[in-house]
UniProtKB/TrEMBL annotation:
Subcellular location: Cell envelope
A Gene Ontology term for the protein's cellular component: cell envelope
Chief place of localization: other
GO biological process, one term: cytochrome complex assembly
Domain of life of the organism encoding this protein: Bacteria
Organism per entry: Xiashengella succiniciproducens
Keyword Disulfide bond: yes
The name this protein goes by in its record: AhpC/TSA family protein
Keywords, alphabetical: Cytochrome c-type biogenesis, Disulfide bond, Redox-active center
Lineage: Bacteria, Pseudomonadati, Bacteroidota, Bacteroidia, Marinilabiliales
InterPro entries: AhpC/TSA, DUF4369, Thioredoxin-like_sf, Thioredoxin_domain, Thioredoxin_ResA/DsbE_sf
Coiled coil: none
Gene Ontology MF: a single term: antioxidant activity
């Protein structure tokens, strides 16, 4: 009886250990000797994880992962790897360097799911055939046939798109779904992908793919906060005299915020209009805040002097306020705030600025 209990305890102990680690046993059919490298996708590049010697075409890796992720097997200096989902389990890989996409991977549930996604995808061959037919119809000048083929192409494209969206939504609780969103995010509408990633964040926590997705979508989320009627993000920056100036200190006034730089020609061309605007309306009820994105204070101050700017002048040298808070993608970028600090107009230019501000103050 003691032997039986001991045996059961050993089995449970082994099962427990195996769930916290992986063992990758591989066979490369067309290369017998050399070095095998284990790598994975990092934030900015492919990360080196481990390496081992290839003997008689066989190799083994052991270790543990916190999360299931896409890994790569590279053999010697061959650039095309075998890709697979690594997780804490016993995984076998059989493949060749000549056709790594046909490698057989067993023992990874996440990899099985990725293979299922690829195998059940509506045929790409049909899409490619229709595309070739369209090119031939155009070459022959058969516009009617070309338009007919375009309609078929759209149907085929929508079928694939629908399949991908359904698959991802059904797998919003695993790393495969998250990886697919990273690579195919453009098929979703803005509100749809934000809601999807929120769900994945709830389901997967701080999985690296979810962290990556949230970083990718940060500008989009910020843009949603910057709609007319919402309160403008508060910030504090140094003015031209080195003093801290906060946006909040201008509550009670209408405020025109202008993100600009000395090297921006359209910005400099707009400055005379702002000079005239401030001369007419600047005072207790209205203020201009020009936020320079110049890297150096010297260039900024020289442009201020040349253009005769005399209102609140702030310096955002690292662009953090412009990019992170106001999602500025190009300059000039202008914003009009009401007395409570809420956004009421965006990206006014030219004569439109004076007419809008004049109407507000009258």
């Amino acid at each position: 009886m003691k032997k039986l209990f001991f045996g059961l305890a050993l089995v449970f102990a082994m099962a427990s250990c195996s769930s916290d680690s992986y063992k990758i046993s591989g066979k490369i059919e067309d290369v017998s000797e050399g070095t095998v490298y284990l790598k994975k996708i990092g934030v900015d590049s492919i990360e080196d994880i481990d390496s081992t010697t290839l003997k008689n075409g066989k190799f083994t890796f052991t270790g543990s992962v916190v999360y299931p992720e896409l890994y790569y097997i590279f053999v010697n200096e061959i650039e095309t790897p075998i890709a697979f989902f690594n997780e804490n389990s016993s995984i076998s890989i059989t493949g060749s360097t000549k056709d790594p996409q046909k490698a057989v991977i067993k023992g990874s549930k996440h990899n099985d799911l990725l293979v299922k996604f690829e195998d059940e995808m509506p045929s790409i061959e049909v899409y490619e055939q229709l595309r070739d037919e369209y090119m031939r119809a155009q070459a022959m000048g058969d516009n009617a046939l070309a338009e007919s083929i375009i309609a078929d192409l759209q149907v085929a494209a929508e079928e694939r798109k629908s399949y991908i969206r359904d698959f991802i939504n059904a797998n919003n609780n695993n790393a495969v779904g998250a990886l697919l969103v990273i690579n195919i995010a453009q098929i979703f509408e803005q509100d749809e992908i934000l809601a999807l990633v929120d769900t994945m964040t709830t389901n997967l926590g701080d999985h690296p793919y979810v962290v990556m997705l949230n970083e990718m979508l940060a500008p989009l989320r910020q843009q949603q906060l910057l709609t007319v009627g919402n309160e403008a993000p508060l910030f504090t920056l140094k003015d031209i005299n080195g003093n801290d100036v906060s946006l909040e200190s201008f509550r009670g006034k209408y405020v025109f915020i202008d993100f600009w730089a000395s090297w921006c020609r359209p910005c400099r061309e707009e400055n005379p209009n702002l000079v005239a605007l401030y001369k007419e309306f600047g005072g207790e009820d209205f203020e201009i805040i020009s936020v320079s994105l110049d890297e150096t204070a010297e260039e900024w101050m020289e442009a201020v002097k040349e253009d005769g700017l005399s209102w609140t002048l702030l310096h955002d040298a690292d662009g953090s306020v412009a990019q992170q808070l106001y999602a500025v993608q190009s300059i000039p970028s202008t914003w009009v705030l009401d007395r409570e600090g809420k956004i009421i107009y965006k990206n006014l230019r030219g004569a439109e600025i004076a007419s809008t501000i004049g109407a507000l103050l009258q």
